[in-house]
Amino acid sequence: xxxxxxxxxxxxxxxxxxxxxxxxxxxxxxxxxxxxxxxxxxxxxxxxxxxxxxxxxxxxxxxxxxxxxxxxxxxxxxxxxxxxxxxxxxxxxxxxxxxxxxxxxxxxxxxxxxxxxxxxxxxxxxxxxxxxxxxxxxxxxxxxxxxxxxxxxxxxxxxxxxxxxxxxxxxxxxxxxxxxxxxxxxxxxxxxxxxxxxxxxxxxxxxxxxxxxxxxxxxxxxxxxxxxxxxxxxxxxxxxxxxxxxxxxxxxxxxxxxxxxxxxxxxxxxxxxxxxxxxxxxxxxxxxxxxxxxxxxxxxxxxxxxxxxxxxx
Amino acid sequence: xxxxxxxxxxxxxxxxxxxxxxxxxxxxxxxxxxxxxxxxxxxxxxxxxxxxxxxxxxxxxxxxxxxxxxxxxxxxxxxxxxxxxxxxxxxxxxxxxxxxxxxxxxxxxxxxxxxxxxxxxxxxxxxxxxxxxxxxxxxxxxxxxxxxxxxxxxxxxxxxxxxxxxxxxxxxxxxxxxxxxxxxxxxxxxxxxxxxxxxxxxxxxxxxxxxxxxxxxxxxxxxxxxxxxxxxxxxxxxxxxxxxxxxxxxxxxxxxxxxxxxxxxxxxxxxxxxxxxxxxxxxxxxxxxxxxxxxxxxxxxxxxxxxxxxxxx
Amino acid sequence: xxxxxxxxxxxxxxxxxxxxxxxxxxxxxxxxxxxxxxxxxxxxxxxxxxxxxxxxxxxxxxxxxxxxxxxxxxxxxxxxxxxxxxxxxxxxxxxxxxxxxxxxxxxxxxxxxxxxxxxxxxxxxxxxxxxxxxxxxxxxxxxxxxxxxxxxxxxxxxxxxxxxxxxxxxxxxxxxxxxxxxxxxxxxxxxxxxxxxxxxxxxxxxxxxxxxxxxxxxxxxxxxxxxxxxxxxxxxxxxxxxxxxxxxxxxxxxxxxxxxxxxxxxxxxxxxxxxxxxxxxxxxxxxxxxxxxxxxxxxxxxxxxxxxxxxxx
Amino acid sequence: xxxxxxxxxxxxxxxxxxxxxxxxxxxxxxxxxxxxxxxxxxxxxxxxxxxxxxxxxxxxxxxxxxxxxxxxxxxxxxxxxxxxxxxxxxxxxxxxxxxxxxxxxxxxxxxxxxxxxxxxxxxxxxxxxxxxxxxxxxxxxxxxxxxxxxxxxxxxxxxxxxxxxxxxxxxxxxxxxxxxxxxxxxxxxxxxxxxxxxxxxxxxxxxxxxxxxxxxxxxxxxxxxxxxxxxxxxxxxxxxxxxxxxxxxxxxxxxxxxxxxxxxxxxxxxxxxxxxxxxxxxxxxxxxxxxxxxxxxxxxxxxxxxxxxxxxx
Amino acid sequence: xxxxxxxxxxxxxxxxxxxxxxxxxxxxxxxxxxxxxxxxxxxxxxxxxxxxxxxxxxxxxxxxxxxxxxxxxxxxxxxxxxxxxxxxxxxxxxxxxxxxxxxxxxxxxxxxxxxxxxxxxxxxxxxxxxxxxxxxxxxxxxxxxxxxxxxxxxxxxxxxxxxxxxxxxxxxxxxxxxxxxxxxxxxxxxxxxxxxxxxxxxxxxxxxxxxxxxxxxxxxxxxxxxxxxxxxxxxxxxxxxxxxxxxxxxxxxxxxxxxxxxxxxxxxxxxxxxxxxxxxxxxxxxxxxxxxxxxxxxxxxxxxxxxxxxxxx
Amino acid sequence: xxxxxxxxxxxxxxxxxxxxxxxxxxxxxxxxxxxxxxxxxxxxxxxxxxxxxxxxxxxxxxxxxxxxxxxxxxxxxxxxxxxxxxxxxxxxxxxxxxxxxxxxxxxxxxxxxxxxxxxxxxxxxxxxxxxxxxxxxxxxxxxxxxxxxxxxxxxxxxxxxxxxxxxxxxxxxxxxxxxxxxxxxxxxxxxxxxxxxxxxxxxxxxxxxxxxxxxxxxxxxxxxxxxxxxxxxxxxxxxxxxxxxxxxxxxxxxxxxxxxxxxxxxxxxxxxxxxxxxxxxxxxxxxxxxxxxxxxxxxxxxxxxxxxxxxxx
Lengths: 313, 313, 313, 313, 313, 313
Prior knowledge:
Six copies of one chain form a homohexamer. The first copy, chain A, is an alpha/beta fold. Chain A has one domain: Arginase, Chain A. Helices cover 35% and strands 17% of the residues of chain A. Chain A has an eight-stranded parallel β-sheet with strand order 2-1-3-8-7-4-5-6, sandwiched between helices. In chain A, strand 7, helix 9 and strand 8 form a beta-alpha-beta unit. In chain A, helix 5 packs parallel to helix 6 and helix 9 runs parallel beside helix 10. Chains in contact: A-B, A-C, A-E, A-F, B-C, B-D, B-E, C-D, C-F, D-E, D-F, E-F. At the A-B interface, helix 9 and helix 10 of A face helix 7 and helix 8 of B.
């Protein structure tokens, strides 16, 4: 029987634990853990408002109210497998390339032990490191990407590795399964028509926030499932897919995004996909208010965990 | 003709009055009043972020922009009966049981004079006192409960009276009409599957936020009306039924809630029920921003007042 | 070829430029400009929370992330005609009447040079000056008005020119095309039933936020287009048409408004109208958080620009 | 025996009362009152950040922790004479001249009944109205003026009555006792050397914040007392005399001001002057944080009340 | 050689550790620890603004920038003895008396192992539990108490154990050394002259904030040292001894307090006293901004640690 | 006669201009300018809270209230020489070394035209580029450095160029005049005793915040003047030299710093030094409140400008 969160009827939620969802630390459960939550406090790939380096701490703080039973899926995710918090990776804020290597190595080590990893960012640059690691084990993956932006731009100021470019690099490095990837929730203007053309060339389908609002979260879930099929799926969620009203605490906010409920419902509607890894990124607490962004991100990570451990029907 | 709010074409809204909706104080209209707004500045039953003791002051401040004409119902609620602000109950922040007695006694006194009471909380613990009072006069009531949570848990740290337990106590004390109560807007994880099972055992139906989003506010209103029938209704609204984006100023926020518009529309859609009392609780201003939570709560209380005084069709 | 925004792959978005969307200043492009963005930092017509005098600066700051390509309409608005930022009008904060004259004169000057003007407010009082100017050139215009409020009240404290009265004055002055104007997104209580009756007398149709939520943004766009026909359209958007969750930074917030996405989608759905001028008003940054209101307003202005320059189909 | 504040051992400070220091309302004590606190929620004379119209409400909220015993002067100010809260004057936000007349008339009425008035602003414009009233009864008064600024400028945009000009007008109207007035705590740059020359011409002495820091609050008090002698004194305190670190919630902040402790100590050090009226102005709550500015202002008003009622030694 | 803080040249300060000053957890060093930092997340004894239950988490977050070398005392406190973070005590937010017992028992256990305890509050109620524990081992202690308030009131609403009464209870229980205790930094009004008289009766001397500002921190330190002599000293610091400008994040702020520098300097000036225990309380993060209060509190705790381990000269 | 700031009696301060102190842009005055204000929006050298990339915009916004006459020095700095705002340098947020080159080149270009430069940061890394430039023209300079920290550390995570290391690099590169440099206002703990020893080895004297508070700003100014003598002086001011109560908006705050008034007075007290360049850095607006940090920084830059242009006596 896995060790679950601290009992909140005995230990107040505002006391003591600083792990995600008040779960045990990895060093407390060690080899038992088969899913871990990993922080990557890095934001040196940010092009506008920085601060996502404080994201992991904030999301953990925002996760203290999470409870162990998930009503829509009727399961207790922390009872199915051992989930643990593996703390933060010690990144180098002054070196993007080195940090990508550090993060990849950290993920490799966990995967080598048979663990799946849900990452708390950090800016979106780090997704590249995680895709490198996960694709080493699973081969090219079907990327499901919730974001206001495409993140398939080429370079900023000559820099190839930034939070706007991870998925172009991933495509170029062969980490993505062909014709299986999809962006969800994009909104806001782009640089040029060619952004969309390039993106299609990398094998992405796209459900914009506008189209999302027309078809609803269930249909979105169905469309994602058709797109990814039975391939291994990596789910990367940039919190700026939410409207700034729901997620002010982020670095490149765009008006017109999803509501928290829409996002959570569409993750649930993906039930049945083969989720091999995921991340929630771009939470920048200095711009948050009353933890609303980090609470939303904590719920997103919880949905991801439930999706990961839920028995397929 | 009832005395209405201060005339905002003569007295600026930012001047002088500190009553709800700039209505007269109870001592100014006395026996004329048949509906009162009552503050209960109490938060010692809170399990996470406290501060709802400042809720009544904040909701009144947030109510200064309310105007006397209600377009959707085409009525002027303050012209139909005399509504007045009865100020705050002097609670004891260091004694929950005593406070429940103080609040019950205060409500009893108003009900004995033929007044109906809309309460501004304060945390949800106080709903128990109000149900005790209202059921003494009307018998067991049909509880319509908007909330992220069920609030039918048993105890926290051995404490029977907290903001997570009022409706289990109310059930045990026989204050609730059988098979007539309903939760609306629940979202977020629970402690265990048994939470839902217990809750059904207490006679509650449930419309989750997910289901709400599928059927819409009108159908929600219809379903509530079918559930409560012609029984006396007590309407208890925890502001955390709203998504944190709409109500950051609360103590136990859960991502994925209702929008303000959905909440207001579903209250309106209850038009025709026999409303004998109600409350708006869990506004914690220290976590609010630009009064958005207290403005939402003020509009909720206004809808409740309109519902209470509207002629049934 | 028009001069576009500063290249954000060479000059960081957080550097240097303080113009709307990092466009050129008017003095840099001069006679080439056919559409300008004009700030009116004035809030002395405000009846509740002031501060919209800082609106133009805030909206420009919130516009720095705007990019040149507009996916839903598949166009690059700044490439079609020369758009420039004309800076702010030097208003007199101590004299409403004089300010209306100053603003009208400034607009006249631009219109005389064949420029169309998108104004960044400032409180809603200033719309009267802009309607005076635009109707001198185009004759009475079809006003499309997104707002929580009607803004057709008569006087406050005897003052005829305030942010609650511009469109009654505009009607009285014959600036509005008969039976062609429309309010969209109204919500919250009014002073009296006669507010609506008077308003209809001035020739306004009305789509409330409640009705908006039932029919959706496309149908709203269609209804607007039927209402305005081929007449010259002036589009005035009070940011408080949004729910306070999306736009806390405003002066007279009312719970139950539109989402940012709904607002942006309905502007887009007006594609094809003959837009001769417009404004975005009532952004009050002191009440904003993390720029969410000014970012929403910046996107609204961007949609308006796209609507103005888009080739009609 | 005067009626004092509500008993905070029986009624929690966060409950019920919305008067200054939880004192009785004027209508509760009527003719007994010999000192009143009066709100003037007006900010249309503001040249930069507005919002002082919400000052009176904020200062009252910030005064809830004030207790009845004043240790440094060893007295209970509310036991010496009856002090009451007279509410707010109904100003006209759209007409400065009319508002000055309304405020003057309101003050006249109180003075005619033998009451002394402490005013909570509002912007500094209103001091002119209060000087007009108080000088009608006492003749020209010795003005003691704590402020970052001189407030003896001539006009802004042609407007003679603004928050930067009240004391030049007062001088011109003969309201000030010759060679008896003094500015305290000025800091920040000025428009021109002539500002200081003009000011001296109006009969003002000056203790800058720099000099204040050299001689300390006791010596400042002594210097003020020498300046005013036995003349009737009007004490006008602009909260921006404090450094922005102590008073962020104000409209024209200047770095380098006094600390709260220095300000309170220097008021106490004026003990013995004949105080006939006073004001605390320029609290703009939208820029405040955690009520620190309004708490400072509440303490300032409390010191002023103590100074006013303390028996002279 | 004690285990010190995580090396911030290898692990970024914003990564991983959530202990005070990034020190090891107690379970990592166990029997080696001779000084521990202990959180008590409790605020049910609060009479005004609650929220200090989140104080320990906030102070730890605010302590991440602390470095190991203390220049004024020229020592490395974490190298002299093993210091560790013992996490939080699991209090009962619904029972003050039980919580006092829990906290006392927790402290007893540490003291029994020869550890000295620095407590992070939490509201001031908990100081009673800590004095009970420390006096069991050391006999009555000399209490050095920095606070805006006396905290020797009797009861609130009949409650004997609140944050305003711990030291009266301590006196009554014989926990305080006679004529050896002292309040430092009191400011703001009191309930009555008898507050001071009672307080002297309990054996307290007093250096008010006013007197502090006259004599300066060195003389304050000397006066404290004369007062406590060679007795065991317990140092209790309510963060509201600071002016609200330096510590907005607290529950009962009073204008006119100390600066952070004055507080830190006066603690240092106590060098040589025999410090057997201490606490920093009343940090309420919901009212804080940019962590300024929790950073100040973290520095205060660090000074206390340095004072505790510094070799006496 | 130099062109001064926009006339604020004609153009409201909240309108139009976005330059420092509402001065002309460099392109408006060109060759006339002999002193310029230059923004460097860069924060990739930050080790803790980032965000100083938005510093230049924020300081300019905070400078809008600055007026042209400086009372303590009795001069109008913008009338003595032409001062202009040269906008921001286009840095590369993803490359520290390249950015140092870009900044150095930009400064070189201005210096080559005989201009002196006051830089608005940005994090402290950029001071190295400015010292490289200024020492090319003036030879090694006497560095006067106000800061909480020494900024003479060696590397972080192997990175030689960060905001904690610029002055060690400057020393190694021979940019600093021997035995002429001085730190002022240091406070907070250090990594090790060797930090101070190393620092002295680089030729720095030191006036800690503690010593500053004992001797006062005049004596500090005198001590600085003795230290620098007649050498060319570069004045680098990290805003974190202020206590967090005065400057919350910064990245590595340490409790116990200077007040704004102390800082401004000590700059003034340096009157007579030969100031050849300077910077104000580390303003991070996301952590600021009500612009208090950026207002303080704007006043600091204004004092620096006055110091630079004041005729030596």
